[in-house]
Design a protein that fits this description.
The complex is a heterodimer of chains A (about 325) and B (about 300). Chain A has helices at about 45-55, 80-85, 110-120, 125-135, 145, 155-170, 185-205, 215-220, 240-245, 250-255, 295-300, 330-335; strands at about 5-15, 20-30, 35-40, 60-70, 75, 90-95, 175-180, 205-210, 225-230, 230-235, 305-310, 310-315. Helices cover about 35% and strands about 25% of the residues of chain A. Chain A has 2 domains: about 5-220, Rossmann fold, CATH 3.40.50; about 225-260 and about 280-335, no CATH class. Classes of the chains: A alpha/beta (about 325), B mainly alpha (about 300).
Chain lengths: ~325, ~300
């Protein structure tokens, strides 16, 4: 049985002006120790889905349908107090901007011991010792001295390590990393990704990595889901997805990234148009208006995820990309970029 | 000094510990704030050591009764009032009541304002709506008028005055804290705290409040100056603490207001005490704002 099983998750935001249907039926299974990527452009519902699973949506957001099964429980049905016991202990999350994700007036040690005393029932001295140990594990030099420092005394990369320490302090079974490297510069990005990879291996954690950066998923994730307008449109083992993208949107994403080794005169090939307004209810495939493969059927009936090529490769498309249009690059080459 | 020692010294120099320490450093480099501290320290010393400083009992007649009492003269530093009491002694003792009333009424306003503002800002929804409309209602009545009304209802007396002046400060503090909390409520570190299972009460007390409280500290000092002036105003219109043995600056001012032309010193000196204490507190408040406000940091 899967460690985490999400089915038909729907999230809506109710504001005075409009109702935004941000997540429109997301389903996936996550096995213990698996690393899974969710890619998509801004506003497609990647972060919202994970916030919804943990019950920490912003005030206007509501889960309107679906099930998030973790062990024998549906997280969406838990009372707030029960859910708080899951968050941080079994499932933890790290966020995009390490500069603002730590409380500026609390010593970093205090922010980690807070988690340990809550979930592990440690006393202050033990929690402090454990916090130093965790900070060491995520690669903070002189952790013993630095527990008493405030966030503003750390660099961005170091703050992200502190965030990760906070998240893994209680040895969660699942770590959700929401754009963990987006706010960092490139060399630090590589270090943080290395750290995540190492921790996943050491702790046997499952990892859900949310990103818009295809290079990041290529380097870290075993499986990748592509999200568009609140739905998963393609899911496959990462190398398979990069080698044989069957959804036109996935292909468009891959083709729209600039390549260092491309010939000078070769033009970048962006996806035309813009994603749909999520306030609308959609008929047919949500990508159809921007899709070169779209047919009458695409515009009328919404496609569901269906098996294609291999048993792990699913795509929600009436007219999957034919073989002759596939790119020549593999995921290893992507990871190297 | 060996290299290791030099390095150790360097390291200890490079370790500013925390926001409050930094704020204190900035405060100490602000000349205006230091003047304010000096003024207030002088008044606090006067209040605490009044029996030692004042040459006479403030309630007793020590000189001749006069319709035109003598001004500053030998033996009587600031002169006498018409009942022959020593003005300097009365002003020194007056610092006790004025400062106490200022402090207590601000604490009253701060305490209630803090609770109401925190509830409104953190809970939001109808709680927010209900609390803030009541605050708006209070703000719509001129402060002094509201205080006069409250004292009239509660009756004259020291405690009633402190309460009345405190109550009219509540909406200011409540609004300020609510706004500050609204700004912090959706902050990333709050989401991060929620994501590791920190309960709501703790998020408010440990995470949001300490980040929202700085403007209230500044407002608190400024409000104290206002409170002193307001108590003086209440005394002036005859609603102040009315025990002649315990003078209060506004009271002294009110007693002598009709002798402004003949014996100006009787109005000038208590007025000066009010102005200087309010100025001192305001200078401290401004200094604190510059020291604490993160937007003014380099």
């Amino acid at each position: 049985m899967a460690l985490l099983s999400v089915s038909d998750l729907e999230v809506k935001f109710f504001t005075r002006r409009a109702t935004v249907h941000a997540v429109r039926g997301v389903s996936f299974d996550l096995e213990a120790g698996e690393t899974m990527g969710i890619v998509g452009e801004s506003g497609c519902g990647k972060s919202v889905s994970s916030l919804a699973m943990l019950g920490i949506l912003p005030r206007a957001g509501r889960v309107t349908d679906g099930e998030v099964r973790f062990g024998d429980r549906n997280l969406l049905e838990l009372r707030d107090a029960q859910l708080r016991d899951v968050r941080g202990k079994d499932i933890a999350m790290i966020f995009q901007d390490p500069m603002t994700s730590l409380n500026p007036v609390l010593k970093i040690g205090r922010q980690i011991t807070e988690v340990l005393t809550k979930h592990m029932g440690m006393d202050k001295a033990n929690a402090e010792r454990e916090a130093i140990e965790v900070l060491g594990r995520v690669g903070i030099p002189n952790a013993r001295d630095r527990v008493d420092d405030y966030p503003h005394q750390f660099s961005g990369g170091m703050r992200q390590r502190v965030m990760i320490a906070m998240a893994i302090a209680c040895h969660p079974k699942i770590l959700i990393a929401d754009e963990p490297t987006t706010a960092l510069d490139v060399t630090i990005q590589a270090q943080i990704l290395d750290l995540l990879r190492r921790l996943v291996e050491e702790e046997g954690m499952a990892l859900i990595l949310i990103t818009h950066d295809l290079g990041v998923v290529a380097g870290v994730c075993q499986r990748t889901n592509v999200m568009y307008a609140g739905r998963f449109v393609e899911t496959a083992p990462t190398h398979e997805l990069f080698a044989r993208p069957r959804h036109p949107y996935t292909l468009g994403l891959l083709k729209s990234v600039p390549r260092l080794d491309a010939a000078r005169k070769e033009k970048l090939d962006p996806i035309g148009g813009a994603p749909p307004e999520l306030t609308m209810e959609m008929q047919g495939c949500s990508f159809a208006p921007r899709c070169t493969y779209a047919t009458q059927e695409s515009r009328e009936r919404t496609p569901e995820l269906q098996r294609i090529d291999t048993k792990d490769h699913l795509v929600a498309c009436w007219n999957p990309v034919p073989d002759q249009d596939l790119p020549a690059e593999s995921s290893d080459e992507w990871a190297a970029r | 000094m060996s290299i290791a020692e030099a390095e150790a010294a360097q390291i200890s120099l490079e370790r500013p510990s925390g926001l409050w320490r930094d704020a204190l450093d900035r405060f100490r480099r602000n000349p205006g704030a230091l003047v304010g501290v000096f003024l207030i320290v002088v008044f606090i010393i006067a209040a605490v050591f009044a029996p030692a400083i004042a040459p006479f009992d403030p309630g007793k007649q020590v000189g001749p009764l006069a319709t035109n009492p003598q001004g500053p003269s030998e033996g009587y530093l600031l002169g006498l009032d018409e009942q022959g009491r020593d003005l300097f002694s009365r002003i020194v003792y007056g610092a006790r009541l004025s400062l106490l009333v200022g402090l207590v009424s601000v604490l009253v306003g701060l305490a209630f304002g803090l609770i109401l503002g925190a509830l409104a800002g953190y809970l939001g929804g109808w709680v927010d709506f209900a609390i803030m409309r009541v605050m708006d209602l209070m703000l719509s009545i001129p402060g002094l008028l509201l205080a006069i009304g409250l004292v009239t209802i509660l009756g004259r007396g020291l405690f009633q005055i402190m309460l009345a002046v405190g109550v009219i400060q509540i909406p200011i503090f409540a609004r300020l804290l609510r706004g500050s909390i609204l700004g912090q409520r959706e902050a990333d570190y709050v989401l991060a705290a929620r994501s590791v299972g920190v309960p709501g009460r703790k998020i408010l007390l440990v995470h949001i409040l300490p980040n929202s409280i700085a403007p209230l500290i500044v407002q608190g000092t400024l409000a104290m100056a206002t409170a002193i002036i307001e108590v003086a105003a209440l005394s002036f219109v005859g609603l102040g603490p009315n025990d002649p043995r315990f003078p209060e600056w506004g009271n002294i001012l009110a007693e002598n207001a009709n002798r402004l032309q003949e014996s100006a010193h009787l109005v000038f000196f208590p007025g000066l005490a009010i102005v200087l204490s309010a100025l001192g507190i305001n200078l401290i408040g401004d200094g604190l704002r510059e020291a604490i406000d993160p937007k003014l940091k380099s």
